[in-house]
């Protein structure tokens, strides 16, 4: 295709967007398990002066990581939704364009038009 031309393999986009969504689900499931493991280990830090110092140094960054990781599944879900939406938009535009061209030629649209045949 030349400059300024676009063709989207909507089936491939949809497959890839499902893979993106799968990554988000995998991150969520993995973090749920690993986060629980980490929280259970935190109980072993202790409550004495050394434990208090460790907690003061460890807990704020640990919470920051937990907060950041908690956002990842939603970001992947949003990316997958946007990708699927772009494929849907492309298909609608392709059908509309095919219909407009077929109408201009005096006949019914017979489906997507292959841009390489124009």
Low-confidence runs of at least 5 consecutive residues: none
Tell me the β content: under 5%
Mean pLDDT over all positions: 88
Number of strands: 0
Shape designation: rod-shaped
Structural domain tally = 1
The number of helices is 2
Class from secondary-structure proportions: mainly alpha
Which sheet architecture does the biggest sheet show?
none
Task: Please estimate the helix content.
Answer: over 70%
Strand and helix order: HH
User: What is the rounded Rg?
Assistant: 25 Å
The span between the termini is 12 Å
Task: Identify the notable features of this structure and list them briefly.
118 residues, mainly alpha, rod-shaped
In short:
With 118 residues, the protein is mostly helical. The protein contains 2 helices and no strands.
Overview of the molecule:
By secondary structure, the protein is mainly α. The chain has one domain. Helices cover 75% and strands 0% of the residues. It contains two helices and no strands. Helix 1 (10-42) packs antiparallel against helix 2 (49-104). The termini are close together. The model has no long low-confidence stretch (mean pLDDT 88).
How do the strands and helices of this protein lay out in sequence?
Blueprint: H1 10-42, H2 49-104
